[in-house]
Amino acid sequence: MRMHTGKVSNIVLAALLWCLPLTASFAGGPLKLNPNDPDNFSRWPNGGVNIPYNPDLGGLGPLSNDEAVQQTAAAFQRWQDIDTATATYSNNGPLPFDVNVTNFLPFIKNLLTGNNNADGLSPIVYDEDGAIFTALFGASRILGFAAADTFDSDGVPIEGVAFLNGGAINRDLSREEFLAVQVHAFGHYSGLAHSVVNGQSIVFGDAVSPAPISFGLPSLDELETMYPFLIPGAGQARLHADDIAFYSTLYPVPDFFARRGSISGTIYASDGVTPLSGVNVVARRLFRPFLNAVSAISGDRGVPGAYTIGGLTPGARYVLYIDELMAGSFSTTPLRPLPGVEEFYNGANESNDSFIDNPTERELLIPVAGTEQTGIDITLNATLLPGEPLPLDDRSFVQVFLPFAFTLCGQDFSSVFINADGSLTFGRDGLVAFRLLPEFLAGPPRIAGLWKDLDPAQGGSVIFTTGPDRFSVHWINVPESIQGGANSFTITLKRKLPGSPFGNAFSVTYGSLTAEAGISGYSCGGKVTSRVETSSDLSAEAPFIFKSLFKTAVFEDFTRAGSATDLIDTPLFYPGTRRFRDRFEPNDTFSTARRIHLPFNSEDTNRRYTAIEPRGDDVDYYRFHARAGQSVIVELLSGSFTPVLGLFDASGNRVAFKEPFGIPTSLVYEVPDSGTYALAIGASPDTELTGNGLGDGRYVMNVFSVEGRVLNLRDESSEEVELDFSFPFQGQNWDSVFVNSNGNLTFGSPDLSFPSAGNLLSGPPRIAQFWADLDPGSQGLVTANVQSATATITFSNVPLFPITQPNTFAVTLNANGSIAFDYGDLDDVTTPRLVGISEGGGAVDPGSTDLSGAANFPVSGTTYEEFGSNNALDLEDTLITFD
């Protein structure tokens, strides 16, 4: 069973892994946020009293069901025994059946799809032999995952789910070690994220605090429970102070905050203004520093750069420092590498100047009971200086904060990522596996001098220079990683002119270039581009690239065959970019749906730009007319978010729905009644299509109708189509026909064999309009338009497997027994395919016929032509009849 990896990644965020694979880790904080909660936490109601669970009926590895249920209760009890918290747990009875690899999907559907469907159960699934985990993740070391998965109208959890990998017990882990897995999983179930206080030091040998000050290294028994990796022998079933502190913050006893102290502040970039989220912040007590440490991630409660660390001992002495999260996926995106060094909080000396704010100097913090010490801010020290070579090598980057705000395509940025590969990106680094056009258009906003595999570590240098009105990055004689050579160019960002309706101007000035391929220009990034923008001739348009004022991307793609860089000693000046707005707003409700006419495509940036914006407060409705007997197809061709699609009739009743599974995606609806319909597009998990999704950005949609219905054909599949007439073929009358995905029709039974004369002659009666290894599941449509005296089966833009050029063709069956093959565009590959008809069942081979040599052939018996390497396909744009 293959699961959708994009949604499985959501599960990994709440998963525990065995030993050392580098993946998800969190600092102590909430697993999810809820804006309706006074602290923005997602937590169970009523102080967590009687959090429900329903244990499975099967075993867990070598544990019997009774033993598994007892160990589950013992794991929950570890959390319930925290005397500073009020949460308790209630076994609400077993699940109605034993969950296994054949029936587990309903229990995981909310996590996979973002749905919010309640079933009255909070399953604790015992995957006895690990088969479910193999189906979900393949060969992995994921031991368990858990989370609340169903919420009330205020976003408060009402149901949860946990899956435990019993295949790991005895094979890899002892029963006691697996108890730690359960305690960890039930921390997630209760609302805790992963935490990192000692784990990175134990697993990776990371220094416990900023060098050269060190507390030594923690021992195994000082590892926090909510660290994302299980370390055998570490005793992670025992709760750590970090685990207890945030659990008590979620479900505090009445006097918890009165008896404990807390620290809060903001982590700032070296400019002293920009808040930085994704930084691990640790408060470590000087007495028993490994057992008495509590952490948070800046921004983990929804406020950029802000952190709060609670549960601290009043009167004790603590030091506070920032720590880079080393690996993994995070609910709060980790900031790595840090744009500065790890450092202690240094009181009045805290600044971006390392001569004043020595990163190793610290100020002691002494918590006060019932008091939150605020304003404990840390400003990162500036470590990258103008004019000095940047520490870049192949596939690396640095982040530098700008002396002015920079606006690109309506997106505002305070910093820039300087990538070794000859480009600047905004919002995040620009590292990719392949430097090709799809990545250029779909990635972060990017300005590329020459986007190529450049490596400053092999020669040359990359430096930046800055002034009040400009910021420049210079690649000086930088070679390619493999080809060598020397490439020089400068990208300059300019301060925005007062009153300008456009974004900041920028320029690229080229010196000598030896690289012959790459991409030069800019892209607004995946939240703005259509992904189908085309290459320009920059040297012909130099020096002023005025079309940047109205284009989502202007670039020259030198990676294309036959192209080579021609920009040596060329200056390119881009006067700015503009913000692109949804052309159809306001259309956020059914009643304000905007009228469109089918077919409709929103690829045109200037006239039909469509987008979900702002994030968390938009859904788009469109209204159109459709006729009975048609099928409406909605395709989302590109976008930077996971979409939710809904179709409504004229009365507002939802008649079709597409659960979120990423882009590209499509919705198909067979129209029963002529009239007006409304299409809604939102972002996951907004399954109610009210506008509260978690994604945003541009999307390109294609909405059209076809006559008849769309067949649900995938690679190697078949579907029976009922006819409205009796069709005479090869001496029999047929009331239905099987449409096979490989481009042929059979009668009496489906047939998925590959094209050959032998299979044609020996198989069922067959009409082979284009018999080949086609894959309609990857691209294109297959439709059936059945009328009272005709039936037309059309393959539209269907490629061979694996994906090749698309093929379009149709076959029409008439009540009088005649047949017509109608061909449009066909591919030019030479893989085997066969065209013709046969009675099958051991028919005599008449030999191959040149079908392009005549337009009409007999409808009885066998007539065919084989195509391949020795006989090129020659049927494009032709019509062949059999009567």
From TrEMBL:
Q: Which InterPro entries match?
A: MetalloPept_cat_dom_sf (IPR024079)
Q: Name one GO molecular function term.
A: metallopeptidase activity
Position of the signal peptide: 1-27
Kindly indicate whether the keyword Signal belongs to this entry: yes
Which keywords does the record carry?
Signal
Tell me where on the tree of life, at the top rank, the source sits. Bacteria
Q: Could you confirm whether the keyword Signal appears in this record?
A: yes
What is the recorded name of this protein? Peptidase C-terminal archaeal/bacterial domain-containing protein
| Source organism of this protein record | Exilibacterium tricleocarpae
